[in-house]
Specification:
Layout: E1 38-44, H1 48-59, E2 65-67, H2 94-107, E3 111-113, E4 119-121, E5 127-131, E6 134-143, E7 147-149, H3 155-159, E8 165-166, H4 169-172, E9 180-184, H5 188-197, E10 203-208, H6 217-225, E11 229-233, E12 235-241, E13 248-253, E14 263-266, E15 269-272, E16 276-278, E17 309-311, H7 323-348
Parallel strand pairs: 1-2, 1-6, 2-3, 6-17, 8-15, 9-10, 9-15, 10-11
Antiparallel strand pairs: 4-5, 5-6, 7-16, 12-13, 13-14
Helix pairs in contact: 1-2, 1-7, 5-6
The structure holds flavin-adenine dinucleotide.
Length: 349
């Protein structure tokens, strides 16, 4: 598939902030008021991690309540084609995959609430969660609120997301075979994405607004030595050009005092690799985070530092960040929560 045929083939991260899109009616099938406010297990987030946890927990008879956010379905909701989720040899649209996961979870008794969690109190049992003016109580909680890709904030970037503009080279690089692409960023992730994209693109332009990278020395030397990667230091993308698909970007010289006019750089793809923001604000610091703001696991299980609170998916994983790894994590969290609840029941009797 060529970029000229866009938008098929690559996707976007949903921004769960103020501009979050309304719930997709294809996915949102149940109204919030039906949900009970007392649950054995509450799952926060309805991406691959949260919904996989719900499938497992519901099949175990826990009747989980998923408070899945105002934009349910997670990052794959704006991805037009997912080709690497096992079981779909022809690929599947992201929203269709998420609608299927949701139906599967609901089939076994999961209750969905399409609202954001505003805050939590995990200091005592039962754990308390507030969402859209309602207070929910649960013995166990799985936090699966994902992460949002950071974008440059350009109007043209938003317009061309899914039409050549992406935030995931692992997911979308394949669609840029034989084209030139631009990667923006200066950390390890950006350099890794640039190297990965050389497998498909004829040339990778790595654009960084400073004169030095933040990445590790080994990554910098690999990028510098690669014949297909051209570095554009002290440059920033100020506009993405193209009507229906990405055709070029405009680069501005960021050197202090520079007065040169912005230059046009032809490219079929723009990969924004300036980081992700884990969605943890709702926790109000109740769980420890690492230096990058991702939740930390307590051990090699999905347990957090708080008894009865488990963690799954991209909200703690900044290494793999894939739908299948998030789904695997959701499975592990549901099994951990189920065992924790069973042990608790046994200790009470
Ligand atoms: C552009 C792009 C394309 C991608 N394409 C692919 C691909 O082709 N294949 C692949 O394997 N992976 C792909 N990914 C990665 C994949 O989407 C993620 O790894 C995966 O979705 C992570 O799942 P998750 O459940 O952990 O989190 P998310 O999918 O981020 O879901 C988080 C959930 O938490 C909810 N939430 C957030 N805040 C709150 C709150 N306050 N209250 C309640 N709920 C909240 C959201 O509504 C959402 O339901 C892509 C990612 C991007 C950015």
């Amino acid at each position: 598939m060529t970029n000229a045929e866009a938008p098929k083939g690559f996707g976007l991260a949903i921004d769960f902030g103020a501009a979050a899109p309304a719930a997709d009616p294809a996915v949102a099938t149940k109204a919030a008021p039906a949900a009970p406010t007392e649950a054995r297990l509450l799952i926060l987030g309805s991406g691959p991690a949260g919904l996989t946890a719900a499938i497992y927990a519901a099949r175990a008879g826990l009747a989980p309540v998923v408070i899945g956010g105002y934009a349910p379905g997670g990052q794959l909701m704006l991805t037009s084609e997912v080709e690497n989720f096992p079981g779909f040899p022809e690929g599947i649209d992201g929203p269709e995959l998420m609608a299927n996961m949701r139906k599967q979870a609901e089939r076994f008794g999961t209750i969905m609430v399409d609202q954001d969690v505003d805050r939590v109190d995990l200091s005592a049992e039962p754990h308390r969660v507030w969402s859209a003016g309602r207070e929910f109580h649960a013995e166990a909680i799985i936090v699966a609120t994902g992460a949002s890709a950071l974008w440059l904030g350009l109007e043209s970037e938003t317009r061309l997301r899914g039409r050549g503009v992406s935030a995931c080279a692992t997911c979308d690089g394949f669609f840029f075979k034989g084209q030139e692409v631009v990667v923006v960023g200066g950390g390890d992730t950006a350099l890794e994405e640039a190297l990965f994209l050389t497998r498909f693109a004829t040339k990778v332009h790595l654009v960084h607004r400073r004169d030095t990278f933040r990445a590790s020395k080994i990554m910098i030397s690999r990028v510098q030595a690669h014949a297909s990667i051209q570095l554009h230091m002290n440059r920033e993308v100020i506009e993405v050009l193209g009507e229906k698909s990405t055709e070029a970007v405009m680069l501005r010289d960021t050197t202090p005092g520079a007065t040169s006019t912005p230059e046009r750089l032809a490219a079929g793809g723009l990969f924004v690799a300036i980081g992700h923001k884990p969605n943890t604000a709702l926790l109000g610091g109740a769980l420890p985070v690492d230096a990058a703001g991702y939740l930390q696991l307590e051990s090699d299980t999905t347990a957090s530092q708080i008894d009865g609170v488990f963690i799954a998916g991209d909200v703690h994983d900044h290494r793999y960040r894939q739908a299948v790894t998030a789904a695997g994590d959701g499975c592990r969290a549901a099994l951990d929560a189920e065992r924790w609840l069973a042990e608790r029941d046994a200790s009470k009797s």
